[in-house]
Amino acid sequence: MKLSDCLLHKIRKGQVQVLSLIIITGIVIALVGVAYIWGSPMIEKRTVYTQYTSAEKFMNDLNDRIATLATTCTTKNGCTQTINIPNIDGRGLSVDETGNTLYFHFPSSQRMLASERIALNTPYTGEPADYGTAPPGLLEVEGVTEDSIYLIKFSLHYRELYDEDSGIGYMIKIQGNVQGNNQIIMTYAGTESVSGGSAAPQGGDMTVSTIQLSVL
Fold it and tell me: What are the C-alpha distances in Å from 78 to residues 58, 68, 69, 176, 188?
């Protein structure tokens, strides 16, 4: 074989190798692009699911600690609980003192919930609820749209529990109309009996245990 033919053969062989590499690289890039396009929604869904489970766990833990303070502590200002608020898109916890309800919400790229509220910790959603059957705190979640932004919104409402046998109502009252996104401090602020304070049809007195909240 002539030298020129040999060189030409090597050049052509090199061109084929380069072309093959370019084709393979193109295929890999295309596959990565397709995987990203299909995988991106799944990543978003996993992120939203992680945020949701974190928020739900926080609200359940918060409810457990408030209920423990209200039912076990006997000394005014003698018992305190502290819990960190999960940092989800910078959103924090808010306290509605008038409605005796705590709220925690965050924006979501996935519409994973309907607009109707869903009870998370009990099937008994009425008020007054039956003492001994229903928990004092009703934890619910819903999907809402505010200012064109879809939000996952948790609410923890403390309602009256009514004991038909004794005719007495029981309720946890939360105080502290504040909001924050770092930490919440809960302090037992005492228990009192309110004459004729029950909202139940049968009336009667109501025992009220107050929890003072400070959100940092």
Answer: 24, 13, 10, 18, 7
Determine, yes or no, domain membership for 33. Answer: no
Closest alpha carbon to 131 in 156, 99, 96, 167: 167
Using alpha carbons, select from 85, 91, 86, 96 the residue that is nearest to residue 108: 91
**Is residue 8 situated within a structural domain?**
no
CB 173 within 8 A of CB 199: no
Task: Enter the tokens of residue 35.
Answer: 């995987």
Which domain covers residue 185, as residue numbers? 38-215
Mean pLDDT value of segment 59-82: 94
pLDDT digits (tens, 9 = 90+) for 45-55: 777 788 888 99
Number of domains observed in the structure of the chain: 1
